[in-house]
Amino acid sequence: MKILIVIDQYDNLSNGTTISAKRFVDGLRKAGNEVQVLSTGKDDENKFALKTYKFPKIIDKYFKANEMVFAKPDEDVMRNVFKDQDVIHFYMPFALARKGVKIAEEMHISHTTAFHVQPENITYAVGLGTKHRINDKIYTYFRSYFNKFRHIHCPSNFIAKQLEDHGYTAKLHVISNGVDEEFKFDRKEKPEELKDKIVITMVGRYSPEKRQDVLIEAVKKSKYADKIQLILGGKGQCYEEYKKLSKDLKNEPIMQFLPKEELIKVLSYTDIYVHSADAEIEAISCLEAIACGNVPIISNSDESATVQFALNEESLFEHGNSEDLAKKIDYFIDNPKHLEEMRKKYAEFANKFRIDNSIKLMEKMFEEEIGEYGKEK
Protein backbone atom coordinates (compact mmCIF):
# COMPACT_ATOMS: atom_id res chain seq x y z
CA MET A 1 0.00 0.00 0.00
CA LYS A 2 0.95 3.61 -0.53
CA ILE A 3 0.21 5.28 2.79
CA LEU A 4 0.46 8.96 3.73
CA ILE A 5 0.69 9.91 7.41
CA VAL A 6 -0.53 13.48 8.08
CA ILE A 7 0.53 14.85 11.47
CA ASP A 8 1.22 18.35 12.80
CA GLN A 9 4.66 17.54 14.20
CA TYR A 10 6.94 14.65 13.36
CA ASP A 11 10.45 15.83 14.23
CA ASN A 12 9.93 16.28 18.00
CA LEU A 13 10.94 13.08 19.80
CA SER A 14 9.77 14.31 23.21
CA ASN A 15 6.12 14.19 22.12
CA GLY A 16 4.33 10.89 22.78
CA THR A 17 2.07 11.07 19.73
CA THR A 18 5.06 11.83 17.50
CA ILE A 19 6.99 8.88 18.91
CA SER A 20 3.99 6.64 18.26
CA ALA A 21 3.66 7.93 14.70
CA LYS A 22 7.32 7.24 13.98
CA ARG A 23 6.97 3.68 15.26
CA PHE A 24 3.97 3.09 13.02
CA VAL A 25 5.78 4.59 10.02
CA ASP A 26 8.85 2.40 10.61
CA GLY A 27 6.72 -0.70 11.21
CA LEU A 28 4.53 -0.15 8.15
CA ARG A 29 7.63 0.28 5.99
CA LYS A 30 9.21 -2.91 7.36
CA ALA A 31 5.95 -4.68 6.49
CA GLY A 32 6.49 -3.72 2.84
CA ASN A 33 4.36 -0.58 2.52
CA GLU A 34 5.43 2.66 0.87
CA VAL A 35 4.92 5.30 3.59
CA GLN A 36 5.33 9.05 3.32
CA VAL A 37 4.76 11.80 5.88
CA LEU A 38 3.24 15.28 5.61
CA SER A 39 4.12 17.46 8.59
CA THR A 40 6.04 20.50 9.80
CA GLY A 41 9.81 20.65 10.19
CA LYS A 42 12.27 19.71 7.48
CA ASP A 43 11.77 18.09 4.09
CA ASP A 44 13.23 14.62 3.77
CA GLU A 45 13.24 11.83 1.19
CA ASN A 46 9.81 10.59 2.30
CA LYS A 47 8.65 13.61 4.27
CA PHE A 48 7.02 16.78 2.97
CA ALA A 49 7.17 19.89 5.15
CA LEU A 50 4.56 22.59 5.75
CA LYS A 51 4.91 25.92 7.54
CA THR A 52 3.63 26.36 11.09
CA TYR A 53 0.98 28.68 12.45
CA LYS A 54 2.16 31.74 14.37
CA PHE A 55 0.16 32.67 17.45
CA PRO A 56 -0.02 35.72 19.78
CA LYS A 57 2.84 35.72 22.33
CA ILE A 58 0.83 34.58 25.35
CA ILE A 59 -0.58 31.57 23.47
CA ASP A 60 2.70 30.87 21.73
CA LYS A 61 4.48 30.78 25.10
CA TYR A 62 2.14 28.03 26.33
CA PHE A 63 2.53 25.98 23.13
CA LYS A 64 6.32 26.28 23.24
CA ALA A 65 6.40 25.23 26.91
CA ASN A 66 4.57 22.05 25.92
CA GLU A 67 6.41 21.75 22.58
CA MET A 68 3.18 21.88 20.60
CA VAL A 69 3.29 22.76 16.90
CA PHE A 70 0.40 23.23 14.47
CA ALA A 71 0.81 22.92 10.72
CA LYS A 72 -0.52 25.57 8.34
CA PRO A 73 -2.39 23.87 5.48
CA ASP A 74 -1.09 24.53 1.98
CA GLU A 75 -3.58 23.26 -0.60
CA ASP A 76 -1.12 23.10 -3.48
CA VAL A 77 1.40 21.07 -1.51
CA MET A 78 -1.31 18.83 -0.09
CA ARG A 79 -2.91 18.05 -3.44
CA ASN A 80 0.50 17.24 -4.92
CA VAL A 81 1.36 14.85 -2.06
CA PHE A 82 -2.12 13.30 -1.88
CA LYS A 83 -2.47 12.36 -5.56
CA ASP A 84 -0.51 9.08 -5.58
CA GLN A 85 -1.68 7.66 -2.24
CA ASP A 86 -3.84 4.58 -1.62
CA VAL A 87 -4.88 5.82 1.82
CA ILE A 88 -4.27 8.94 3.94
CA HIS A 89 -4.17 8.63 7.72
CA PHE A 90 -4.75 11.82 9.74
CA TYR A 91 -3.43 12.05 13.31
CA MET A 92 -4.74 15.26 14.88
CA PRO A 93 -8.20 16.92 14.56
CA PHE A 94 -6.88 20.39 13.83
CA ALA A 95 -6.63 22.71 10.81
CA LEU A 96 -4.27 20.50 8.79
CA ALA A 97 -6.48 17.40 9.03
CA ARG A 98 -9.76 19.34 8.64
CA LYS A 99 -8.50 20.85 5.39
CA GLY A 100 -6.91 17.55 4.41
CA VAL A 101 -10.05 15.46 4.69
CA LYS A 102 -11.92 17.89 2.40
CA ILE A 103 -9.19 17.61 -0.20
CA ALA A 104 -9.06 13.80 0.14
CA GLU A 105 -12.83 13.63 -0.43
CA GLU A 106 -12.59 15.87 -3.50
CA MET A 107 -9.75 13.75 -4.89
CA HIS A 108 -11.59 10.48 -4.06
CA ILE A 109 -8.75 9.09 -1.93
CA SER A 110 -9.37 6.68 0.96
CA HIS A 111 -8.81 8.28 4.37
CA THR A 112 -8.76 7.27 8.04
CA THR A 113 -8.02 9.08 11.27
CA ALA A 114 -6.96 8.51 14.89
CA PHE A 115 -8.15 9.82 18.25
CA HIS A 116 -5.06 11.01 20.13
CA VAL A 117 -6.28 14.28 21.69
CA GLN A 118 -8.34 13.75 24.84
CA PRO A 119 -10.44 16.80 25.79
CA GLU A 120 -8.84 16.67 29.24
CA ASN A 121 -5.46 17.38 27.61
CA ILE A 122 -6.92 20.80 26.82
CA THR A 123 -9.10 21.50 29.86
CA TYR A 124 -6.55 20.53 32.52
CA ALA A 125 -4.14 23.06 31.05
CA VAL A 126 -6.57 25.88 31.91
CA GLY A 127 -7.76 24.49 35.26
CA LEU A 128 -11.04 23.05 33.97
CA GLY A 129 -10.12 19.37 33.69
CA THR A 130 -12.76 18.14 36.13
CA LYS A 131 -15.60 20.05 34.44
CA HIS A 132 -17.36 17.18 32.66
CA ARG A 133 -19.76 19.45 30.73
CA ILE A 134 -16.87 21.30 29.14
CA ASN A 135 -15.11 18.06 28.24
CA ASP A 136 -18.37 16.79 26.75
CA LYS A 137 -18.65 19.94 24.62
CA ILE A 138 -15.15 19.36 23.26
CA TYR A 139 -16.07 15.76 22.37
CA THR A 140 -19.09 17.22 20.55
CA TYR A 141 -16.94 19.81 18.76
CA PHE A 142 -14.48 17.13 17.64
CA ARG A 143 -17.36 14.95 16.41
CA SER A 144 -18.02 17.18 13.38
CA TYR A 145 -14.52 16.24 12.17
CA PHE A 146 -14.42 12.58 13.17
CA ASN A 147 -17.82 11.75 11.71
CA LYS A 148 -16.41 12.50 8.26
CA PHE A 149 -14.56 9.17 8.47
CA ARG A 150 -15.60 5.53 8.27
CA HIS A 151 -12.68 4.28 10.41
CA ILE A 152 -11.03 5.69 13.55
CA HIS A 153 -7.95 4.29 15.28
CA CYS A 154 -8.54 4.27 19.06
CA PRO A 155 -5.50 3.41 21.23
CA SER A 156 -7.66 1.85 23.97
CA ASN A 157 -11.10 0.40 24.71
CA PHE A 158 -11.56 3.27 27.14
CA ILE A 159 -11.39 5.97 24.48
CA ALA A 160 -13.47 3.89 22.04
CA LYS A 161 -16.23 3.76 24.69
CA GLN A 162 -15.97 7.54 25.13
CA LEU A 163 -16.49 8.07 21.41
CA GLU A 164 -19.45 5.68 21.33
CA ASP A 165 -21.02 7.51 24.27
CA HIS A 166 -20.58 10.86 22.51
CA GLY A 167 -22.26 9.88 19.25
CA TYR A 168 -19.31 9.12 16.99
CA THR A 169 -20.53 7.05 14.03
CA ALA A 170 -17.35 5.58 12.47
CA LYS A 171 -16.10 2.04 12.99
CA LEU A 172 -13.73 2.17 15.98
CA HIS A 173 -10.54 0.11 15.73
CA VAL A 174 -8.97 -0.47 19.14
CA ILE A 175 -5.24 -0.73 18.41
CA SER A 176 -2.51 -0.09 20.98
CA ASN A 177 0.13 2.46 20.05
CA GLY A 178 2.45 -0.49 20.53
CA VAL A 179 5.51 -1.30 22.60
CA ASP A 180 8.85 -1.44 20.79
CA GLU A 181 10.76 -4.75 21.07
CA GLU A 182 13.69 -2.89 22.66
CA PHE A 183 11.61 -2.46 25.81
CA LYS A 184 12.06 -5.89 27.40
CA PHE A 185 12.57 -7.67 30.72
CA ASP A 186 16.33 -7.27 31.21
CA ARG A 187 17.07 -6.08 34.74
CA LYS A 188 20.34 -4.18 35.31
CA GLU A 189 22.36 -3.02 38.29
CA LYS A 190 21.77 0.54 39.46
CA PRO A 191 24.53 3.08 38.80
CA GLU A 192 26.89 3.56 41.72
CA GLU A 193 25.29 6.84 42.86
CA LEU A 194 21.89 5.12 43.20
CA LYS A 195 22.99 1.82 44.76
CA ASP A 196 21.54 2.66 48.17
CA LYS A 197 18.38 4.34 46.79
CA ILE A 198 14.86 3.09 46.08
CA VAL A 199 14.26 4.29 42.54
CA ILE A 200 10.70 5.33 41.66
CA THR A 201 10.14 6.44 38.08
CA MET A 202 7.35 8.14 36.17
CA VAL A 203 7.52 9.17 32.51
CA GLY A 204 5.23 11.78 31.01
CA ARG A 205 4.85 15.39 29.98
CA TYR A 206 4.97 17.88 32.87
CA SER A 207 1.37 18.99 32.44
CA PRO A 208 -1.52 19.32 34.93
CA GLU A 209 -3.41 16.16 33.93
CA LYS A 210 -0.35 13.93 34.42
CA ARG A 211 -0.37 14.74 38.16
CA GLN A 212 3.33 14.36 38.98
CA ASP A 213 2.46 16.60 41.93
CA VAL A 214 0.56 13.68 43.52
CA LEU A 215 3.63 11.46 43.21
CA ILE A 216 5.93 14.10 44.72
CA GLU A 217 3.58 14.50 47.69
CA ALA A 218 3.31 10.72 48.07
CA VAL A 219 7.08 10.39 48.32
CA LYS A 220 7.06 12.97 51.11
CA LYS A 221 4.48 10.85 53.00
CA SER A 222 6.25 7.52 52.48
CA LYS A 223 8.04 6.04 55.48
CA TYR A 224 10.94 5.48 53.05
CA ALA A 225 11.06 9.12 51.90
CA ASP A 226 14.73 9.51 52.81
CA LYS A 227 15.70 6.50 50.69
CA ILE A 228 13.59 7.21 47.61
CA GLN A 229 15.14 8.67 44.48
CA LEU A 230 12.41 10.01 42.21
CA ILE A 231 13.03 10.10 38.45
CA LEU A 232 10.51 12.14 36.45
CA GLY A 233 11.22 11.64 32.77
CA GLY A 234 9.74 14.39 30.61
CA LYS A 235 9.46 18.12 30.05
CA GLY A 236 6.66 20.67 29.96
CA GLN A 237 4.90 23.66 31.47
CA CYS A 238 4.90 22.44 35.11
CA TYR A 239 8.68 22.00 35.39
CA GLU A 240 9.27 24.96 37.72
CA GLU A 241 6.18 24.14 39.78
CA TYR A 242 7.36 20.56 40.38
CA LYS A 243 10.89 21.72 41.18
CA LYS A 244 9.50 24.03 43.85
CA LEU A 245 7.13 21.37 45.19
CA SER A 246 9.95 18.87 45.63
CA LYS A 247 12.51 21.20 47.22
CA ASP A 248 12.07 19.69 50.69
CA LEU A 249 12.66 16.09 49.57
CA LYS A 250 15.92 14.69 50.90
CA ASN A 251 16.88 13.44 47.44
CA GLU A 252 16.29 15.98 44.72
CA PRO A 253 14.23 14.44 41.90
CA ILE A 254 15.94 13.83 38.58
CA MET A 255 13.80 15.80 36.13
CA GLN A 256 14.75 15.63 32.46
CA PHE A 257 13.64 14.24 29.13
CA LEU A 258 14.98 10.72 28.67
CA PRO A 259 15.94 9.72 25.11
CA LYS A 260 15.02 6.15 24.21
CA GLU A 261 18.35 4.51 25.10
CA GLU A 262 18.56 6.33 28.43
CA LEU A 263 14.91 5.57 29.20
CA ILE A 264 15.42 1.83 28.65
CA LYS A 265 18.47 1.97 30.92
CA VAL A 266 16.54 3.76 33.69
CA LEU A 267 13.60 1.37 33.44
CA SER A 268 15.98 -1.60 33.73
CA TYR A 269 16.91 -0.63 37.30
CA THR A 270 13.74 1.14 38.46
CA ASP A 271 12.27 -0.41 41.64
CA ILE A 272 8.68 0.86 41.23
CA TYR A 273 6.97 2.64 38.35
CA VAL A 274 4.14 5.08 39.13
CA HIS A 275 1.61 6.50 36.68
CA SER A 276 -0.41 9.13 38.52
CA ALA A 277 -2.21 10.78 35.57
CA ASP A 278 -5.88 11.72 35.90
CA ALA A 279 -6.42 11.53 32.13
CA GLU A 280 -4.86 9.19 29.57
CA ILE A 281 -5.94 7.73 26.24
CA GLU A 282 -3.49 4.86 26.69
CA ALA A 283 -0.13 5.83 28.31
CA ILE A 284 2.43 4.00 26.22
CA SER A 285 5.10 5.11 28.69
CA CYS A 286 3.47 2.96 31.37
CA LEU A 287 3.36 -0.02 28.99
CA GLU A 288 7.05 0.44 28.19
CA ALA A 289 7.86 0.38 31.89
CA ILE A 290 5.79 -2.79 32.38
CA ALA A 291 7.50 -4.46 29.40
CA CYS A 292 10.84 -3.82 31.15
CA GLY A 293 9.62 -5.78 34.17
CA ASN A 294 8.41 -2.90 36.29
CA VAL A 295 5.44 -3.25 38.62
CA PRO A 296 3.25 -0.16 38.21
CA ILE A 297 1.12 1.77 40.65
CA ILE A 298 -1.58 3.46 38.59
CA SER A 299 -4.20 6.15 39.25
CA ASN A 300 -7.71 4.64 39.17
CA SER A 301 -9.16 7.74 37.49
CA ASP A 302 -12.35 7.25 35.44
CA GLU A 303 -10.79 9.43 32.74
CA SER A 304 -7.73 7.23 32.28
CA ALA A 305 -7.28 4.12 30.13
CA THR A 306 -4.14 3.15 32.05
CA VAL A 307 -6.26 1.37 34.66
CA GLN A 308 -6.45 -1.54 32.18
CA PHE A 309 -2.79 -2.35 32.84
CA ALA A 310 -3.22 -3.06 36.57
CA LEU A 311 -3.14 -6.80 37.35
CA ASN A 312 -4.03 -6.49 41.04
CA GLU A 313 -5.44 -4.04 43.59
CA GLU A 314 -1.98 -3.21 44.92
CA SER A 315 -1.21 -1.65 41.54
CA LEU A 316 -4.04 0.87 41.82
CA PHE A 317 -4.40 3.93 44.02
CA GLU A 318 -7.22 6.43 44.50
CA HIS A 319 -6.69 9.13 41.89
CA GLY A 320 -5.38 12.40 43.25
CA ASN A 321 -4.83 10.84 46.71
CA SER A 322 -1.15 11.12 47.63
CA GLU A 323 -1.69 9.39 50.98
CA ASP A 324 -3.15 6.30 49.31
CA LEU A 325 -0.32 6.31 46.75
CA ALA A 326 2.22 6.49 49.59
CA LYS A 327 0.62 3.42 51.20
CA LYS A 328 0.88 1.45 47.94
CA ILE A 329 4.52 2.50 47.49
CA ASP A 330 5.30 1.38 51.03
CA TYR A 331 3.46 -1.91 50.49
CA PHE A 332 5.72 -2.93 47.60
CA ILE A 333 8.86 -1.79 49.39
CA ASP A 334 7.77 -3.83 52.45
CA ASN A 335 7.03 -6.88 50.27
CA PRO A 336 10.01 -7.36 47.93
CA LYS A 337 9.15 -11.01 47.18
CA HIS A 338 5.71 -10.03 45.90
CA LEU A 339 7.30 -7.24 43.87
CA GLU A 340 9.72 -9.68 42.22
CA GLU A 341 6.96 -12.22 41.53
CA MET A 342 4.85 -9.59 39.78
CA ARG A 343 7.70 -8.33 37.57
CA LYS A 344 7.58 -11.37 35.27
CA LYS A 345 3.78 -11.37 35.17
CA TYR A 346 3.70 -7.74 34.08
CA ALA A 347 6.45 -8.25 31.47
CA GLU A 348 4.52 -11.17 29.96
CA PHE A 349 1.29 -9.17 30.03
CA ALA A 350 2.94 -6.33 28.05
CA ASN A 351 3.71 -8.70 25.17
CA LYS A 352 0.05 -8.46 24.11
CA PHE A 353 0.69 -4.84 23.18
CA ARG A 354 3.76 -5.27 20.97
CA ILE A 355 4.11 -2.95 17.98
CA ASP A 356 4.22 -5.79 15.41
CA ASN A 357 0.67 -6.81 16.30
CA SER A 358 -0.46 -3.17 16.15
CA ILE A 359 1.03 -2.80 12.66
CA LYS A 360 -0.98 -5.78 11.39
CA LEU A 361 -4.18 -4.29 12.81
CA MET A 362 -3.45 -0.89 11.25
CA GLU A 363 -2.88 -2.52 7.85
CA LYS A 364 -6.19 -4.33 8.23
CA MET A 365 -7.96 -1.03 8.97
CA PHE A 366 -6.37 0.64 5.93
CA GLU A 367 -7.29 -2.28 3.66
CA GLU A 368 -10.86 -2.21 4.91
CA GLU A 369 -11.12 1.52 4.20
CA ILE A 370 -9.61 1.16 0.71
CA GLY A 371 -12.04 -1.65 -0.10
CA GLU A 372 -15.09 0.26 1.11
CA TYR A 373 -14.09 3.55 -0.51
CA GLY A 374 -13.37 1.82 -3.81
CA LYS A 375 -16.96 0.55 -3.94
CA GLU A 376 -18.26 4.12 -3.56
CA LYS A 377 -16.34 5.57 -6.49
Account of the 3D structure:
The chain has helices spanning 16-30, 57-65, 75-82, 95-106, 119-123, 132-146, 157-165, 212-221, 239-245, 260-269, 284-291, 322-334, 336-350, 355-376; strands at 2-6, 34-40, 47-50, 87-90, 110-114, 151-154, 171-174, 198-203, 228-233, 254-256, 272-275, 296-299, 316-317. The model has no long low-confidence stretch (mean pLDDT 93). With 377 residues, the chain is α/β, with parallel strands linked by helices. Helix 8 links the parallel strand 8 (198-203) and strand 9 (228-233). The chain has 14 helices and 13 strands. It has a 7-stranded parallel sheet with strand order 3-2-1-4-5-6-7, with helices on both faces. A 6-stranded parallel sheet has the order 10-9-8-11-12-13, sandwiched between helices.
Name the average pLDDT. Answer: 93
Largest sheet: 7 strands, parallel
Briefly note the CATH topology name of the largest domain. Answer: Rossmann fold
Shape from CA axes? Answer: globular
Q: What's the total count of β strands?
A: 13
Structural domain count: 2
String of helices and strands? EHEEHHEHEHHEHEEHEHEHEHEEHHH
**N-to-C CA distance:** 18 Å
Mind telling me the C-alpha Rg? Answer: 21 Å
Query: What's the CATH class of the largest domain, please?
Result: Alpha Beta
Neighbour order of strands in the largest sheet: 3-2-1-4-5-6-7
Strand content: 15-25%
Structural class: alpha/beta
- Which architecture of the largest domain would the CATH scheme give at its second level? 3-Layer(aba) Sandwich
DSSP summary: helix tally: 14
